[in-house]
């Protein structure tokens, strides 16, 4: 199956409406429809409460809470409908009437077993006669339970959350085991799930409110029930469109990004089983909370569900743009009562973490298609979620969905992660609205490791196919904070002269036009560097998986080299940042492949190596194994060695801009710098394996240089013997021959050790 076919419907919403452009959204109905959620007792506020409390208490006594359940005495439709009006009102009571609300929940959870193969004995007969009609009414009434009440204390909110967990668990069981649910009931259930998520999650995050406590749970149930519906009653296009539109307004919630990532990865595993033979390597990844996809999904359903879920949250790159994430009705309501810009709301401080989780999720999908193991992602733990588990420990399901990933395989200690979690938690829930520059950075909270030892499977798809699917997101994520996204034409001189004249004049800038970039570029880059580095690593793995003779579209080459060039930049403080490290760790073979035009990256790669290899103690903010980093860098350096020896006259063209009338530089001009770097790296190397590699590289350099010099001398001897009488090698004719024969092909080893 050609993965490129999926890209035909992958259109931006603003350029054609996307795959659901011809369908109407149900968002307005989900948000504003109240006819099935209001009881007639709301017309009688003074006496309605007393009526509801007395009726539900008697009904609850019949369902087996304190005594054995007995058959219901509600014999007619009118009896049941009247009682349901009372229960609907009871679910909307203030939370201080906890006993009445609890009884209402127990009654409806008992009655919803009418959807099970064997209903409870206490279910009224009218419900058994028409289960779908009454189930839809009960599902609509239960929405009242999830509506946040203002001014309630933390303990009261906890008790509300417990009741919500009970309802969610009941609906999960009904969706999984029911064989009588009609198409209308499935739609009502999915609309209900969308409605409660919209009610709880659309507003900016407030610490310890019911939305904060139920966030992970309601999202996990939404996605799980939706997947079950895909197998039993595939959702209609309007429902898919509504899911996408609403999920886009919940993207400030970290649980959404984490759950979406897990669902997409689980569906990808199923998709690989559809597309490839059983010999395709099973994707391995560090995650104990994997998602179980229903086994009754057909191949076509898996394909359709995978692609639709993949695009549920829109572009993951939007998570690096608070101005976009905050353009929702709930955030704009906040702006109307506050002097602070909605993009500076404290709940958006988690966006750098959400961006990293989303891009890591995309990277895991790429790894699955390549047949390689995904690397671990160590994220900060959120202490407040350990104090208030969701759901409570005695009700926790088999799967839990947390923003925090599994235990690390190395790097940061647990105490360091908890400390960072405290910092992020406090900054996210602060009541004040700090400036944009104070947004939390997650540099140092993740670990970079190398996947250079893994070889992609021979059955892997073509690079073009992967780039059709994920390229747009990865390329945009890889240039976050560089200024390229807003105006790529600002960079006019990316080839400074210091790249050719040695390391003494390096300034870390790509040109004078860098000063014209936005003033906020550096702060944006610092906050989102972890996600950007993850995107660069994934792109490197895609391009390094290219097969011999495989064609990659020129536009992908151009975009890859552009983001690679900016990722290899050295900042003004001469710090080694995450993007540069990520590139070096994942592109050890990039110069060993037949990538078209890769020689234009040689000077930038060499400059990065000159910053890493000669230094014994690098100033690095993230967790990385220094021996692995140096080993990956040495691999790149060794692949550079033959270039100036065998292709000394090969010119290197510019990616952007031009040199004007100046001649283009050649690979031969880099020979001295490569030789110096090899020797300087050998002087500070302490790892035996790395030292062995460097010595081998030095041996190759000496042998190759000697061989080329001997070959040049042999040519000169043959030429001298063929000179006519009276002509010598020192005559003007012989000097002209040496010039025309390119004297640069007689290299000399300049062992310059001093830096």
TrEMBL record:
Protein name: Ral GTPase-activating protein subunit alpha/beta N-terminal domain-containing protein
Pfam short name (any one): RALGAPB_N
Biased composition (Polar residues): 711-720
Listed Low complexity bias regions: 721-734
Region (Disordered): 383-408, 711-737
Organism: Lygus hesperus (Western plant bug)
Molecular function, one GO term: GTPase activator activity
InterPro entries: RALGAPB, RGPA/RALGAPB_N
Start and end residues of each Ral GTPase-activating protein subunit alpha/beta N-terminal domain: 157-276
